[in-house]
Amino acid sequence: MLQDRFIPPNGAFTRSVPIRFSHCDPAGIVYFPHYFDMFNGLIEDWYEQELGYEYAALIMGSHYGFPIVHIDCDFKIPSRMGDVIDLTLLVERIGRSSLGIAIVCHLEGLERLRAHMVTAMMSLETRQPVPLPQALRDKIEAYQRKTTGGA
To answer: Which of 72, 75, 92, 118 is the least buried, fewest Cβ under 10 Å from its Cβ?
Structure first.
């Protein structure tokens, strides 16, 4: 079986995640919904550590939400209890209110899964989409350029 190789682009936001007992099914393999929780944690860390926005303040203080409105995921290699996987976030598309994001799970140069998702910025008060603020958009665009070689 041909394995997909993955090397994160220079400057791509990557975090290591240890696979714990609580992530796994009885076979010791990550139970797939737990990946989605890991993805959300990665996105929160990306907002704070890469973009400089405190994620909790955006939600609780500014009353913005960032729901996932679409997600698809290709599972290629199972992750098991005791593994320490790497998750890398890539921006694929920037819309008026939405972001197309890819999250790649990899270990030792092999891609284990790849998720494509769309998040939308919305007002928690009106439950309607709102445009990405220009300052946030600028930081996301800079990150996208940096990770696609256009910086």
So the answer is: 72
Q: Which residues contact 48 (CB under 8 A, 6 or more apart)?
A: 54, 55
pLDDT along the chain (151 residues), means of 10: 85 98 96 96 97 94 95 97 98 98 97 98 96 97 92 51
pTM: 0.94
pLDDT computed for residue 3 by the predictor: 77
Helix or strand or coil: residue 141?
helix
Residue with tokens 């070689």: 149
Question: What ranges make up the beta strands (E) of 26-139?
Answer: 64-65, 68-75, 84-94, 98-107, 110-120, 122-123
Helix (H) or strand (E) holding 136: helix 134-147
Largest CA distance in the chain: 50
Interacting residues of 110 by C-beta distance below 8 A, sequence separation 6+? 3, 4, 5, 6, 77
Q: How far is CA 136 from the centre of its chain?
A: 16
